[in-house]
Amino acid sequence: MLSDDNQQTPIGDEVFELLARASTSTLATQLYKKGIRQPFLVGLSPVGDKFDGFVGEAYTMRFIPAREDIDPLDDPYRTGNVLQWEAVEEVGRRQVIVVDSRGDVSAASAGDMLITRAMNRGAAGFVTDGAFRDGHAIAELGFPAYAKCITATTRPASFHVAELQVPIGCAGVAVYPGDILVGDRDGIIVVPRALATELAGPAAEQEELEQYLHNRVSAGESLWGVYPPDEQTLNDYRAWQQEKNTRETEKVNA
Question: How far lies 251's CA from each of 72, 110, 129, 254, in Å?
């Protein structure tokens, strides 16, 4: 567990709101500019289609292989390995449980009971580079849950929960407690906590610019000069943005 000496500076609501406007692709571009080449959790997919995404602070969980003398197999619900329950009962608002399952899908990282409890605790999401069980029930929750696949096999058959709130690897990406995870329908990206505030504004701005550019390409324009935008296109965008802001202001004041 992290000690009190490792308490992190809070991130303001406005940062979460700006990050929520950006797609994982936009954030990947912003992180690329900072030298972070591969922050995307490759191979993980949303469970169900009743949510669009999430933004949350990483609450990490690390699995190791189960061993018969440590994890008795007679009753999977009473192995004595209760760290997973502790995590779900401790996770708070805007935190997302991130499980290092070592990419192993031989058993589930969690099922609908634990995920439902995390949701009711105010968690932002639940992520594993392994599998979940009870996939249909999880999909019906409308809660951001991401995994490689679904299995019926219970966690103690393969895994022992070794640690909470330590640096982990998830889908090949380093995740430190408190890092910011942003999910959308494409998947999940990890934003290092130290960069989150710095990237939030530019990411939201890039998202709006790219929507403008996409509209122009969709209308039939060539990529040349539009994507990436040349100075004329950027001037056109600034004029469009100013006109849009004026309309919104007039609507508010009407």
Answer: 65, 47, 46, 5
